[in-house]
Amino acid sequence: IVDAHVVYVPVSEHHFLVMALLYDITELKEIERMQMDFVGNVSHELKTPITAITGFSETLLQGAMNDPKALNEFLNIIHQESLKLTELVEDILSLARIDASPELKLVEIDLRQFLIELLKSFRPEINKKEIQIYIEIPSGCVVQVDQNKLRHVVNNLVQNAIKYNNRKGKVWLKGTIKKDFWFISVTDNGYGIPKDEKDRIFERFYRIDTSRSRQNGGTGLGLSVVREYVEAMSGKITVESQVGVGSTFTVTFPVVLPKKELNNEAE
Ligand code: ADP
């Protein structure tokens, strides 16, 4: 896409010098389009739970609350939709935060300790679905990370490994330092991801459209936030998966961060 300015410079009474200035605005237009798409998607995603909350509360106020069965059912829907709305707003805020402050706050952590601590908050979900969790991380793996960003990343991956898993499913957390990089991987033996959707799941709002995925209903923003956080820490995220067998998400980071991040640390 090109934007052009044409300038006519008179050089004599009958002659003009025509100068054309061409600007390549492909990238600008692309960013503009992505922002418009994002706003459109956000509005659409917000409207769905808001419509349900408004509709069901109105029905209750108009008299349905006198029927105990309807009262219970509609309140449950209102509660579920409010939770969805909260999750959506939190994900949108996370995305806005990365855009606003990409700098890192680096600290040294022991990987094993960090992950054991993080898993504690999953206890209710793990118990409810009877999930088995295995940790394979040697002690003494000390790495330099932005703790909040890494917590957000692993939380999301573990949450998905539980969410898109069967009852009594298994989740493995592995990690170690290998010479000049370190990694964490989250493996599950759950639903798996179709081959042609493996790249798309990192797009904002993308969800795999199977009835099982829909039932678990997320925002479709989780993995796009994860990828942005991982890349902000100079890392990479990869996924290996097979439908009906399970998935492994691996995040890999350099042991020595590029200068750019180290400068931020000093600020
Ligand atoms: P959501 O909020 O829907 O969970 P994500 O961005 O975290 O959004 O994930 C996008 C989609 O990728 C999900 O809707 C789900 O279909 C698929 N997905 C993510 N993690 C897994 C997993 N561990 N196993 C199977 N499918 C997954």
Automatic annotation (TrEMBL):
Its primary localisation, in coarse terms, equals membrane
Q: What superkingdom does the record give?
A: Bacteria
Where is this protein found? Cell membrane
The parts of the chain that form a coiled coil are none
Q: What is its EC number?
A: 2.7.13.3
Q: Which UniProt keywords apply?
A: ATP-binding, Cell membrane, Kinase, Membrane, Nucleotide-binding, Phosphoprotein, Transferase, Transmembrane, Transmembrane helix, Two-component regulatory system
| GO process terms (BP) | cellular response to phosphate starvation
Enzyme class comes to transferase
Q: Which reaction does it catalyse?
A: ATP + protein L-histidine = ADP + protein N-phospho-L-histidine
Please state every residue range assigned to the domain named Histidine kinase.
41-257
The protein's GO terms of the molecular function aspect are: ATP binding; phosphoprotein phosphatase activity; phosphorelay sensor kinase activity
One GO location term (cellular component): plasma membrane
The protein in question is named histidine kinase
Placed within the complete protein, the shown segment runs 192 to 458 of 458
